[in-house]
Amino acid sequence: MQRIEHRACFGGWQDVYRHQSRTLGCAMNVGVYLPPQAAHEKRPVLYWLSGLTCTEQNFITKAGAQRYAAEHGLILVAPDTSPRGDDVADADAYDLGKGAGFYLDATQVPWAAHYRMHDYVVAELPALIEANFNATEARGISGHSMGGHGALTIALKHPGRYHSVSAFSPIVAPTQVPWGEKAFAAYLGEDREAWKQYDAVELIAQAQGQPVENKLPLLIEQGGADEFLATQLKPQLLQAAAAAAGHPLQFNLRDGYDHSYYFIASFIGGHIAHHARALK
Fold it and tell me: Is the whole-model pTM more than 0.90?
């Protein structure tokens, strides 16, 4: 991994690394915040997945998370949201192609050659982090919007791999909203049964019979003035699925807050404390 940015921040270091990804077949940038504690001991890792149009920069420059990560001794890892490069397929729209990887493994041409963000986040990236930094194998995962969808589905699909999960303004039911329907049809094809493996509402329903102690509690933060609330996010679908399945869910509706990083910055401290408790 090649370090391309290195800045002192709250007693630690906010770095950005570039590496060649075998999974994605391209070079990827990854933001890594190393708290001061990581200079002398191994620390747990919180992975952050960003939303549509974002890169690794949005979270590390706008969320104000480093202050809380330094307090709790968490390493923060924020990858880019999609593969990049001249030979990577793209689309004119903001919600498909580069910047819109949707944290799945595409099966359709031309996307399948590079768009394998699910495997990258679950396997290749943690292996790199744990081999190259003072990191333990204790992992939490969080994200915003498309990244909230990614955090929820990845945690639900891989029980035991993550100790904690949370999301801001997540797309909870992509198979039922325009963003998800567009992306899934392109990346996965027209078989809607195949889409369900990347839908948090569907995954919760599929695990309905499992004992509650096997179900990772979900922490969701949602702005009440979010411009996408009624059309793209529909958190009531997740609330209903969790209630039906007996899946632990803390849902915080914050009046007046929108979809922006002003919202994330306002409540990121509570989310990092949530992950820190689970990652001790």
Answer: yes
